[in-house]
Amino acid sequence: MTEEFQIKEEESGIRLDKLLAGHFPDITRSYLQSLIREGNVTLNGKPVKASAKPAAGDCICIDFPKPADLLAEPEDIPLDILYEDEDLIVVNKPKGMVVHPAAGHYSGTLVNALMYHCRDSLSGINGVLRPGIVHRIDQNTTGSLIICKNDAAHQAIAQQLSEHSITRKYRAIVHGRLCEDGTVNAPIGRHPVRRKEMAVHVPNAKEAVTHYRVLKTFRQFTYIECQLETGRTHQIRVHMKSIGHPILGDDVYGPSKCPFKHLQGQTLHAMVIGFIHPRTGAYMEFEAPLPDYFTDLLQKLD
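Predicted structure:
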């Protein structure tokens, strides 16, 4: 696969490896650097070094080697299963686990664990790297995910996601004191400069709606429940930042210094997921209990 793009004015003077990391947020910077070293990246048709600083109008071409058929291998990784039948499985994803393999990151993912647990019973719509995956949550977000075992189930759940009919309720701790419930209705799109980030009210943004409910207020923080009406990338994290209440521990959208030194990543948990079962037509809802780190932190704040 080959990707080609021109450098924008605001990207001029940025190191090439850093610039590419912004354009391809799912790929590790070390892997991108190896592609540059191996001559798979050209600047205006010529090989280039990672330290190069392209100018506005320059043309970057990156050639991704074709992946092998079996890049994702089954791994005996324990799964916290909330529900399972012949069509789907609902799991409680732990903190720090990536949902599916990406360039430079092919092991220890949820997909690796699912391939071991389900053997050959995973939908193939998303290919060999994302079998069964119909939606995902961030690496440092915990909680409930639906995985589909066959293509019919995959199509049915994907349709519900596109119609925004799946119930998704999250728990989060945010900076500052929120005194009342509310709704954030602000379109979300890729940040025009910091390409790893999303932002509200940017060009090509898509509709995004988050409803939040105050559960408990502390001296400097608020414990909330968020219900998604839409499902954009980083939606809750971006929306809470946009109203001045970023999620505690969020090292992308929150303050540069976290008041809790041992906290890794945002305090965001996908607690409830509800959907129409693709075979039976019955509504089903599952709740992933809060992880220990989250409950311990609530006790400290209390």
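Summary: The two ends are 52 Å apart (CA to CA).
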